[in-house]
Amino acid sequence: MSHHPHMIIGWKEVVSLPDLKLELCAKIDTGARTSALHATQIEFFEREGRPWVRFLTAHEQLVNTTAISCEAPLYGHREVKSSNGEQQIRPVIKTHLEMGEFRESIHLTLVDRSSMKYPMLLGRRAMERHIWVAPGAAYLLGQP
């Protein structure tokens, strides 16, 4: 839970996903309900009888620009309307997000965002009740 009930952030911010050992630039999108993380080569497997997912994430806007292999427990699948209006079923993971003083467990859908400028989209579900967005500002919590 956030220590600041109404933290103000810009339309893009550097975020950390410590469970995945990632630090990257995210676009803040109050029009999107769900959050999404760039993922390619998505593979499903079992670990100790539980479903897991393995994927690569890499993007020119990543603070660390090399391809990174990540693994996480699979939370489930979710039907999402993509930016072009098409319905997609995407894998979902649950992970911790850190952004300034904000700490929260969030759901992330995994999708190839290579055609997008930012490797992560932070949707309104992850921010509700905690964050206000200043649409004319960027990197209020620190430069990449």
Automatic annotation (TrEMBL):
It comes from the Bacteria. Gene3D superfamilies: Acid Proteases (2.40.70.10). Pfam families: Zn_protease. SUPFAM superfamilies: Acid proteases (SSF50630). InterPro entries: Asp_endopeptidase, Peptidase_aspartic_dom_sf. Residues 8-140 form the Retropepsin-like aspartic endopeptidase domain. This is Retropepsin-like aspartic endopeptidase domain-containing protein.
